[in-house]
Amino acid sequence: SRYYTLDEFDTVYGGLTGSYEGIGVMIEKEGDYVVIISVFPDSPAEEAGLMPGDKIVTVDGESVEDLTAVEVSNLIRGPADTYVSVGYIRDGVPGVNVISVKRLPIEVLPGYYEVRGEIGYIKLERFDENAPAFINRALMEMDRNNVTKLILDMRDNPGGLVSETIQIARRLVPTGLITRLDYKSERQRDVEYYSYQHNPRYNIAVLVNGRSASAAEILAGAIQESKAGKLVGTRTFGKGVFQTLVPILKPEAYNRYRLLFGIKEVDAYELMYTYSIYPMDSEIQGWVLMTTGVYTTPSGKVIDGNGLEPDVPVEDPVPVKGIDIRSIQKLRKVSKPRLGQKSADVLNAEKILTLLGYDIDTPDTLLDQKTFEAIKAFQKAKGGGAYGRLDFTTQDWLNEELNRLIIEYDTQYSKALELLTSAEETVEEGE
Question: Could you count the other beta carbons within 10 Å of the beta carbon of residue 262?
Answer without folding.
Answer: 6
